[in-house]
Amino acid sequence: MFLTFLKNAIRFSTIFLFGSTGETITEKSGHLNLGTPGIMCMGALGGCVGESLYLKSIGGDYAAIDGFSAVVIGILFAMLFAGLGGLIYGFLTITLRCNQNVSGLAITTFGAGVTNFFINYVDRNGFNYLAAKFTAPVSQANDWFSTIFLSHGALVYLAIVLALVVAFIMKKTRTGLNLTAIGENPATADAAGINVTGYKYVSCVLGSGISGIGGLFYIMDYLYGSWEYSIDAMGWLAVALVIFSVWKPNWGILGSILFGALYILPYYTNFSFAIQEIIKMIPYAVTIIVLIITSIINRRESQPPAALGLSYFREER
Amino acid sequence: MEKTVALELKNITKTFGEVVANKNVDLELYRGEILSLLGENGSGKTTLMNMICGIYFPDEGEIFVGGEEAVIRSPKDAFALKIGMIHQHFKLVDIFTAADNVILGEHMPRYSVKEEGKKAIAAANGFKPVKPAEKILWGLKLGLKLSALPFIKIGKKIKFDYLAKSRTRKITEISSRYGFDIDLKKKIYDMSVSEKQTVEIIKVLYRGAEILILDEPTAVLTPQEIDKLFAILRRMRDDGKSIIIITHKLNEVMAISDRVAVLRKGEHIATVNTAETDEKALTEMMVGKKIDLNIERAEPNDVKDRLTVRNLTVINRDGMKALDDVSFTARSGEILGIAGIAGSGQRELLEAIAGLQKTAGGDILYFDPNKEDAEVDLMQKTPVEIRDLGVRLSFVPEDRLGMGLVGNMDLVDNMMLRSYTKGRFVFVDRKNPKELAEHIVHDLEVVTPGVRTPVRKLSGGNVQKVLVGREIAAAPTVLMAAYPVRGLDINSSYTIYHLLNQQKEKGVAVIYVGEDLDVLIDLCDRILVLCAGKVSGIVDGRGAKKEDIGLLMTKLTGKEADGETKEAAL
Amino acid sequence: MTVKNEAVVSTVKRHKEPLFRLIKRTDIPIWKKWVIRIATFAVAAITAGLLFTFIIGDGAAFGTFFKELWSGSFGTERLTYIFLNNWAIMMCISLAVTPAFKMRFWNIGAEGQTLAAALGAAFVIHYFGKSLIEPVVILLMLVAALFMGMLWALLPAIFKAVWGTNETLFTLMMNYVAIQLVNFFVNLWSPGGSGTIGNLGNGSFHGLFGLPYIQNAVFVAIVTIIVFVYLKFFKHGYELEVVGESVNTAKYIGINVKKVIIRTMILSGAVCGFAGFLLVGGSPTPTINTGLVGGRGFTAILVSWLSKFSPIAMIFVAALVVFLQKGASQASDSFHLGASSAFSNIIIGIFFLMIIACEFFIDYQIKFRKKEGK
């Protein structure tokens, strides 16, 4: 019982982890992308479009589905669609210097609308066969270790690896150093010879692309290929997770598992439905508490990027 | 030893609108020397230096670096020419360590696959194969080498990108060579100003600068830190670097530089060897001859003590004393001038009186003329509390559109900044402010499309007229004005002088902070001189000598001050 | 002097000038502003029409789209009343966020503030609806709704004022705390654990002025006037504008910035609270669920921002948004496209994104590189 709970918590956490890793990259460049929920939706839509095309290309022969191709095509299309959303957001906030909050919210409205509308035009027959490839576990052994750590589909591991890689890049490379500098003080970064606009675009598009994989995972893995209109709710939790993990994707792994556990805890307990809803509130509440504590302690490293939400216009220096 | 010219400026002119910042300036800088650039505020020193490091582009004239003509259009160009400037406002990322700030934005050394390939082919061509087997082997080897190049490039990129611990090695080398005393792992936000400055200098050296420009580096340092900095500068000079240091402090000029270049009102006056001059001669060159401005000055009448400041001390954010034991009295019917190098504590002094600045000690006393000069304590009071005490204090701050006025609001709403609390009940009253705005526009000849125009659309002079007009309209008993004519044309300036004189004749105690000594001498009845947060003297405006004030501004008078510098030098 | 400058440049290597440069405009004629806006609006409308035509795959659909758009709000009398009611709610929430935005306090928690307030009102009906007389219930509902709205706004405001806690993230999270809290009470109150609550039965003042839904529009019209007057003629309104423009100036004239932040957010929350009260009590069948606000808390932010924080402009922008919402769903429904709310989101998204982008051309001027070599 507890093992399955833990296993499912890890599985569920993957949605938030993709979302928050992507959002962290974007926020590090000084762009608070409130379009993330919409962008995760678009990722899900992209994934479905890609898979649908893939099924068509193999002539609808479900037996001929190649697991590797299916997953890779899903990821590519999810990143493509979500990256497109990120590009729109980036164009508005970087080049046109529009207000980030307003642009982000508009992207959320637009992305969720596009997704929930056009998904009806995507032929999703046979998605359950595809989903089986997504959820194919590494090991089917029954011991505790395999149950918790080896029973997941490829995307779960991808999310963790990606979070670690991004954390490494942020902390240990010049790329991360430059990106952090842009989010903290774009004028200084500019003066040091860093291509501020280039970095911002890459971080917005790539960050959105990674968030989009979260949407893909939700549909293809967690929901076994069926559709649900609640991806954007997951998106907001991903935004919360960025704060909870104080802009560190490696902490985000643990944070996402906590969020995932709290989200599915109700199904494993005998609490009344009402109490279950209170438990689901905890991720948001702890995020607020983390936000308050970090602002009271005022440790510089745990603060949001100093230039978060501000547009950079060189001539205003 | 033969001197080689590192940098030469010929005939440099730069104008901003109608203001001439630099006019036909010639300047030479040799390798291995420290050149001081001396001049009053607004004499064009910083503008000149900004042209060398690519922030501005000169209107006229040429710049030669190492004997060759150079076009410097951006800081990047300056970097390429090995010119580095340490600005007064540091450009550092607070949450990074010193080391990370130094290497920030560094680019990988160029590695072109094409060129490397050509090199490899050229090297291989030297080999003349004889046997066919050798020929094949030779071809294979070359092919392998060529195909490996892109991967080598990627490998180099990854290696460069990785922030290895060894990244500090080169920095440590630099800092030990010049004797910098710095912890490279320390975060910038934990650093003192002096440490931050060190990081900036290391950053410039790390980028390979041969010519270093320091803009008033000592302004923010303690005497001990200044000594340390000077020792480092000397070591860099001995290492063959060329250094330009902008400063106002004559004792420092004498202590550090090999030569001194003096600028006055944008023009190059002279460059002299430090050993062949003294402080008095430099001051004369710096301030020039007194020019008569024909500002009418009435004799003060009915002079009474209005505001007394006693032993006022203010500690700024960096933990330094911005004001140190300042005492003076402003009297009604008199203009008290405050002279001093920019940043000597003028802003803190006025803001402390206005209730905007936390104070560390002392007294600020006001004598209320409406209550038979009863004493009112203004220390540690907020602006509202001061107002509620019935103190009619008006303040024209230095930052007109950032503090005194709201740029996006129209004239009427800006008038309301002072009067909005007077409206009936919860409502604001726009009728009186509107009348006031129209009144000011009419009386002070403010050029504006209307009183409903946002003030940011007005020109500098008109903005200032609006601000001064509003402050005067409050019928103050004390009027403080910080640099009220900065950036204004001649006519607007005279309007402001006239307004201040009117106030004085009405019996207001006027405090005027200015930078132009000619104006201070012609306008003010008494002039208080600040130097590094201390009062270095109070002189009578009538008969004051420009050189005397200049000397007071640049160093503390008396033996005490001399003793201090000597101690510091030891 | 310029002649000489060019001579210098031409003798040495020429640095590439960027293709175009951006210059921040200080001034733009009003007519030009409106030409840009109206043109953008037209482009957005045409894009939306083309998208619809493309989906239907019939060229005639372009005209039909605009007809459907119109009939979505004004097709029948009932639809017009519903339009009015939706306008009222959208307008009320937009008004609520405006004082905060004017102060540059990014309150994106209007959704939560409104929902919390609706919960407060529903709470009163659930526990006192049967035992007290209707007017008292409604009065208590109002008090509870205002209290909850203010509470939800006050918390982030206090932490922002005292510790500088990031208000955008704080208010965002408060939205979901409110949603979960509503879920909690819905499950607590729902008969037989169904997880949904139908008509609460009491507490409705629907039809107060004789016409369906009209009371909400009337109340919001009054709120509009109040907020307009508050912002324009109240000392408070003036103070919050100064704080928003420049904290330095605010301190210079002696405004207590912390106090203004907290006070303004209380007001913002109270107006949200009123919107929550209208959502529950103004309905013929008062109920509570998490979809009650339906994302309008977020849309209101866009409405307020696009109106440049002017309550007068907001009347029209809010109407436009509701009009598009209703019209697009109608168009979607009558062609059986399914997911009508999603389709209206697309249309609104297109309009928003384009109008947001057009502000750039009002704020900045693009200067292209001059052609050289003449």
Descriptive report:
The complex is a heterotrimer of chains A (317), B (570) and C (374). With 317 residues, chain A is mostly helical. Chain A has helices spanning 2-28, 36-57, 67-95, 100-118, 127-135, 144-150, 154-172, 174-184, 186-191, 196-222, 231-244, 249-264, 273-297. In chain A, helix 11 runs parallel beside helix 13 (273-297). Chain A starts with a helix and ends in a 20-residue tail after the last helix. The mean pLDDT of chain A is 89. Chain B has 20 helices and 20 strands. In chain B, strands 6-7-8-3-9-10 form a 6-stranded mixed β-sheet, sandwiched between helices. In chain B, strands 16-17-18-13-19-20 form a 6-stranded mixed β-sheet, with helices on both faces. Chain B has 570 residues and is of the alpha/beta class. Mean pLDDT of chain B is 85; it is low at 557-570. In chain B, strand 7, helix 8 and strand 8 (242-247) form a beta-alpha-beta unit. Chain C has 2 domains: 24-58 and 297-366, no CATH class; 79-294, no CATH class. Chain C has a two-stranded antiparallel ribbon with strand order 1-2. Chain C is globular, with a radius of gyration of 25 Å. The model of chain C is unreliable at 1-17 (pLDDT under 50). The chains are: A mainly alpha (317), B alpha/beta (570), C mainly alpha (374).
